[in-house]
Amino acid sequence: MTESDLTIVILAAGLGTRMKSAKAKVLHAAGGKTLIEHVVDTALELTQPARVFVVVGHQAGKVRSILETRGVGFIEQTEQKGTGHALMAGREALQGLPGRLVVLYGDCPLISAHTLRRLVQAQAESGSAATLITTLLEDPAGYGRVIEDESGLVRIIVEEKAATSVQRQVKQINSGIYCFSAAEFWANLGRIGTANPAGEYYLTDIVEILSQAGHAVRPMKIADPVEVLGINNRLELAKADALFRRRKAEELMLGGVTIEKPETVSIDGGVRIGMDTIVEPFAQILGATSIGEDCVIGACSIVRDSRLGRGVIVSPFTSIAGSEIDDEGQVGPYARLRMGAHVEAGAHVGNFVELKKTRLGPGSKAMHLAYLGDSDIGRKVNIGAGTITCNFDGVRKHATHIGDGAFVGSNSTIVAPMEIGADSYLAAGSVITHAVPPEALAIGRSRQVNKEGWARKRKKASHP
Ligand code: UD1
Ligand code: CA
Known about the structure:
Layout (H helix, E strand, L loop, with lengths): L5 E7 L16 E2 L2 E2 H9 L8 E5 L3 H8 L5 E4 L6 H6 L2 H4 L5 E6 L7 H14 L3 E7 L8 E4 L5 E5 L6 H4 L3 E10 H7 L16 H8 L4 E5 L12 H21 L3 E2 L6 E2 L4 E2 L4 E2 L4 E3 L3 E2 L4 E2 L4 E3 L2 E2 L4 E2 L4 E3 L2 E2 L4 E2 L4 E3 L3 E2 L4 E9 L2 E2 L4 E9 L1 E3 L4 E2 L4 E3 L9 E3 L4 E2 L4 E3 L2 E3 L4 E2 L4 E2 L8 E2 L11 H9 L2
Parallel strand pairs: 1-4, 1-6, 4-5, 7-11, 12-15, 13-16, 14-17, 15-18, 16-19, 17-20, 18-21, 19-22, 20-23, 21-24, 22-25, 23-26, 24-27, 25-27, 26-28, 27-29, 28-30, 29-31, 30-33, 31-34, 32-35, 33-36, 34-37, 35-38, 37-39
Antiparallel strand pairs: 2-3, 6-10, 7-10, 8-9
Bound molecules: uridine-diphosphate-N-acetylglucosamine and calcium ion.
């Protein structure tokens, strides 16, 4: 079988009433990616983008836009009259494509490429009209039930709503993942009707149509039901999320990352982490984050879309988004880095310090209680406790530049735009409104006056 023999259609037009959401079901996320992205990405491991089609309907624009870069095709199903109807909407685009047709549901995100390859192979080898993945579920509620004949072929699939009480006892369920011979599929699709309690065109009816016409429909039974978990409500969404997180944590641990209490951490699928890094409990590492070797990601810290070099220490309760920390940098506890903050090699950011669009040069330190925004800070600068860059004048943002080796005294208020020269000193408590030349001492505060004996006089005045 060549690649070009395989077409994959993913149904994603439904709203997903049981989610109780204004957002289409396939746009909900698990493991850091929307359900539809999971399914499409798995499909793309099997065939080229030109042979992957997504049936869209509810919030079609949004579904299309998140998939845009993947180069897959789309089929519009403007009215959602059932899973069979979704395929009917694709007849024109798809029926000319030869070979095999795999149908996947957009709400079934855990299926692996490995299992799908086995499905396609099983269908190819048996020469049957269709092969479908089934599994045994202790609690099959909500799924279609697979009814076999004496020879083990699939005779019909009954939807829960249409099932008799005896059929409901059947624990073998329809995963909703099928591989058809494309020719048989398109020849029989039109025969699906709407004679069921929901009045929908059920794709599952094609199984009975094929088998009555004398074609074999084979079940491919899989032992682990996890892969075919269908997401219909938020409980199932949470279950899928936990499964994705566990898969990712296991993959990282086997790759040499220590994860303490792995059941408590949330790590997105696209995250990369180097060997011997330690991830402490309740950390969240999200989006397109990459972390080097020998780092520590402290408990309850959140790192999103950021790059950390090697030997970086993030102490607990730190929030890092869209930022970079170079080798041996240290941040936290309780620090916040956002919007392009860049902590360069060996620099330290301590508790209750916020950096926004700010570079903190190599070896520099901002250890306590500071806001550094729109700033460019050189090497070996000391930022005292309570330093604030006043970057906003109520209308516009302004930049602050602090030269190498400068010493910014505690509680300095730097009114931007501002230039602080290299190796200069700012006296504690200064409000800096004029540029400071290199090597100067700037004092921007009123002089202290001591009034001798003032307290004694006051006491006398009130108790004569
Ligand atoms: C479906 C199967 C059921 C199976 C279960 C597995 C049918 C009739 N039933 O039931 O046998 O056990 O999946 O998870 O197929 N969709 C469209 N257009 C429509 C209707 C649905 O694109 O008109 C899409 C939905 O967006 C969804 C997928 O098809 O992604 C499945 O639809 P859903 O309503 O969730 O089917 P189930 O009732 O779960
Ligand atoms: Ca479903």
